[in-house]
Design brief:
It contains 9 helices and 17 strands. It is α/β, with parallel strands linked by helices. It folds into 3 domains: 30 residues, no CATH class; 195 residues, 3-Layer(aba) Sandwich (Rossmann fold); 122 residues, Immunoglobulin-like, CATH 2.60.40.10. Helix 3 packs across helix 8, helix 4 crosses helix 8 and helix 5 packs parallel to helix 6.
Length: 428
């Protein structure tokens, strides 16, 4: 649109503008805000989006070091699945944002692989709720055959599955933890055609760990990667970035193992939230239920070695109120591999003789540290008063029980690398 035409459109829009007096308070506040919209989709903004997406990807399995891919050693890649050619950037409902430009996984992989690697795409199976008009048994069989043939003729297959913003949205909960219809069958068929199969989950929630996911040569969870999700995935697949994401939830082996089982979905639109304090890893770790992947879990292309944790003050004063003094914990972490990478060091506190029913341990801090090959760094945690306290229903307040505690440091809630004692002394 030419400048004069734009001025005319703006003039007409201003004449038709609703008076401020006719607007509600939120709209008036928005109109009077000093913050303008600013530029959209700038290189700086895309760089931030790429960093966030890349650092969020979690590597769950990497059998025989299938990843990272080396373009000089492969000639062809089959990219397969209902989430491959579509940029599924986030969930639906009021949180839905449509980016100006969004990169699908297929496009990101093609761009990164370069001209020397042939990238072939096959749908394999349509997304549940998005099936085409000619969705017949014959059409589905043909699509699956195209996917397996593409995989069989490729050096490596990348299957990208998951959910959509119509399935994961507001107003209702998921009906099942299973992947949408046909996706696990697709994964298994591709794995049979090509054992060098990488499976990528593109979801906002855990999925049931099926036979196809268990047998994957490599398994990643990219969640919803936003507008730069395709570039981020390609960076991880080809080793331009070392995976450093960690699971913010537990992957159960099956829904029956979850704390919600037996209460969800409830009856007559009523759900009993009976987990109490045992939500997430607190349930699995306390009840000793073996997960598929624990809270805080994530692999890397390098290895990290933990030193023993040291508690600065081995005893602090507690009592009816939260502890009166804080303490600190230090340890060293070394990158023992040949690649630069980031480790997420997690600190948990375990009460050894709790007076009331409490989780076996609770996360009280974490640090993400970037280390070059062979580099060692000191990690410092500061435990404040609240970190050692819990809510007492009897006293209706926060208290810190005297007694022995254990400080735990590790790379997940189940992978504890070091322990140190801490004693809470009585206030009197």
């Amino acid at each position: 649109m030419r400048h004069q035409e734009w001025k005319g459109e703006r003039s007409r829009a201003e004449r038709q503008r609703k008076p401020d007096a006719a607007c509600d308070v939120p709209e008036r506040n928005l109109r009077s805000s000093p913050h303008g919209g600013g530029e959209v989709d700038t290189p700086e903004q895309r760089a931030v989006a790429l960093q966030g997406a890349t650092e969020s990807i979690v590597l769950l399995r990497n059998q025989n070091n299938l990843l990272p891919l080396d373009p000089s050693k492969i000639q062809s890649i089959a990219v397969i699945g209902p989430n491959a050619a579509v940029a599924r950037t986030g969930g639906g409902g009021s949180s839905l944002v449509r980016p100006k430009n969004a990169v699908a996984p297929l496009d990101g992989i093609k761009e990164r692989a370069g001209a020397g690697v042939t990238v072939n795409y096959a749908l394999g199976v349509g997304m549940e709720g998005e099936n085409p008009p000619d969705d017949t048994a014959e059409a589905r069989a043909k699509s699956l055959k195209e996917a397996t043939e593409a995989a069989a003729h490729a050096d490596v297959a990348v299957v990208i599955v998951g959910r959509s913003n119509k399935i994961e949205t507001e107003g209702f909960d998921l009906k099942t933890m299973n992947l949408p219809a046909g996706q696990d069958a697709l994964i298994q068929a591709v794995e049979k055609a090509n054992p060098r199969t990488i499976v990528v989950l593109n979801t906002g929630n855990p999925a049931t760990i099926t036979k196809g996911l268990v047998n994957a040569g490599a398994l990643l969870d990219m969640f919803y990667g936003g507008e730069e999700g395709g570039h981020a995935l390609a960076a991880i697949l080809f080793g331009d970035a070392n995976p450093s994401g960690r699971l913010p939830f537990t992957y159960p082996k099956r829904f029956e193992d979850s704390p919600a089982y037996g209460h969800y979905p409830g009856q007559n639109l009523k759900v009993d939230y009976a987990e109490g304090i045992y939500v997430g890893y607190r349930f699995y770790d306390t009840k000793n239920v073996e997960p598929a992947f624990p809270f805080g879990y994530g692999l890397s292309y390098t290895k990290f070695e933990y030193g023993d944790p040291h508690v600065a003050e081995a005893a602090v004063i507690g009592g009816a109120q939260p502890a009166t003094r804080a303490t600190s914990v230090t340890l060293t972490v070394k990158n023992t591999g040949d690649r630069a990478g980031a480790e997420v060091v997690q600190l948990y506190v375990r009460p050894l003789h709790p007076k009331i029913d409490r989780p076996v341990h609770e996360l009280k801090g974490f640090h993400r540290i970037q280390l070059n090959p062979g580099e060692t760094r000191m990690v410092h945690f500061s435990l404040d008063r609240e970190a050692l306290a819990y809510w007492s229903p009897e006293k209706k307040g926060w208290v810190t029980d005297p007694g022995p505690y254990e400080i735990q440091v590790g790379s997940s809630s189940r992978d504890i690398r070091g322990r140190a004692p801490l004693t809470i002394r009585p206030a009197h």
